[in-house]
Amino acid sequence: MAYPMQLGFQDATSPIMEELLHFHDHTLMIVFLISSLVLYIISLMLTTKLTHTSTMDAQEVETIWTILPAIILILIALPSLRILYMMDEINNPSLTVKTMGHQWYWSYEYTDYEDLSFDSYMIPTSELKPGELRLLEVDNRVVLPMEMTIRMLISSEDVLHSWAVPSLGLKTDAIPGRLNQTTLMSTRPGLYYG
Question: Which CATH number is 15-88 given?
């Protein structure tokens, strides 16, 4: 669960979110190193009066500043592609849940079981109990098993919606007339908002 003035991500609850956090840290370190190098070079150029004119024409310098960005882009692209393919693969799900977005509520249906469906409405602010979170509490929560692969089929009845659970690393658009699919697996029990 997010807390006020939080600067980072929520704690990871799924293997995919753990991979996303590692990739974020990896990319942020590369951006930090590039920014530090550029700031150092700019400060050197502004403070020193010495210039070496032969380095401006050097073939080696041009080769380095052409190849180095390509290597950096590869260092960012390869982990990113690996995570994209990990997020897209379906590993023989144990449970399938159909999720339909409506204008003010979500409908859930456990398709592996007969006649097991319900609607989930947001609790109005006036009816919240102490300790409950405004705009996050619902009357019927989705209950899912942990350490099992679950397939979510997501669509919408009327307008565009977004079905997201940040701590699981999930965000899938619910679009009328289109069936989107995502998988999730929680590694620990808990109450996850989205």
Answer: 1.10.287.90
The beta strands (E) that lie in the chain are given as 95-101, 105-110, 117-121, 150-156, 161-165, 170-174, 180-184
Question: What pLDDT, on a 0 to 100 scale, did the predictor assign at position 129?
Answer: 92
For the chain, what is the radius of gyration of the CA atoms?
24
**Separation of alpha carbons 130 and 142, rounded Å:** 22
Q: Spell out the CATH class of 95-186.
A: mainly beta
- Contact at 8 Å (CB) between 144 and 150? yes
Crossing angle (nearest 10°) for helices 59-88 and 15-47: 160
Q: Is 186 exposed, middle or buried (0-12, 13-18, 19+ CB in 10 A)?
A: buried
Identify which of 43-47, 62-66, 129-133 has the greatest average pLDDT: 129-133
Averaged pLDDT for residues 151-175: 93
How is the chain split into domains, by residue range? 15-88, 95-186
